[in-house]
Amino acid sequence: MIKERIMLRIADQRDAALIADLSRKTFYDAIGPFNTHENMDKFMNVQFNREKLMAEVGRPDHIFLLAYYNDIIAGYACLRETEIPKALKNTPSIEIGRIYVEQEGIGKGIGSALMQRCIDIAKEKKKKVVWLGVWEHNANAYQFYLKWGFERFSEHIFMLGDDPQTDWLMRKQI
Q: Which among 2, 8, 10, 16 is least buried, having the fewest CB atoms inside 10 angstroms?
């Protein structure tokens, strides 16, 4: 019997193609079935294209984590120290810009391992708040964040192709 194990590591520039491909696949799997083909196509080819995603890897204000499940890539997270919502302006904060797990890996503790590592990194960086945005119709992700102690504090519009969608902003005091 094989003991299941989750391994996390910080990614570097050599992982850019892997992260871009994983980002696109997991995003499409999570959001695609609930949106039009035209809007998904526009988003994936313009805003979320492979070249743009690869360029994010290695930026000094981004930290990417890769999650492996039994030595197979299973998910990733991206922490960003970029724009901060107005409600957090005077608080040392870091954003979990993306946290995704392959469909087959959901429910196996991979998302929790990524979340814990994101929180640990935020503490190492002396942040007081971790925040993120979640699509208002992504009930599973919303429930996951609530379980981790996040609370809604605002919202913003996220353009998916030509479709303005509402993301709820959530924060966790650390």
A: 2
Which helix (H) or strand (E) segment holds residue 50: the answer is helix 50-56
Distances (CA, A) of 127 to 74, 96, 119, 149: 27, 12, 9, 16
Going from N- to C-terminal start, the domains of the chain cover 6-173
Beta strand 129-135 with 93-101: parallel, antiparallel or unpaired? parallel
Q: Is the pLDDT of residue 129 over 80?
A: yes
- CB 57 within 8 Å of CB 66: no
Largest CA-CA distance found in the chain, in angstroms, rounded: 51
Contact in structure between 85 and 169 (CB atoms under 8 Å): yes
Tell me the one-letter amino acid at 106. Answer: I
pLDDT for 44-53, tens place per residue? 999 899 999 9
Q: Using the predicted structure, report yes or no on whether residue 1 has a pLDDT greater than 60.
A: no
**3-state SS class at 3:** coil
Domain range 6-173, CATH architecture: 3-Layer(aba) Sandwich (3.40)
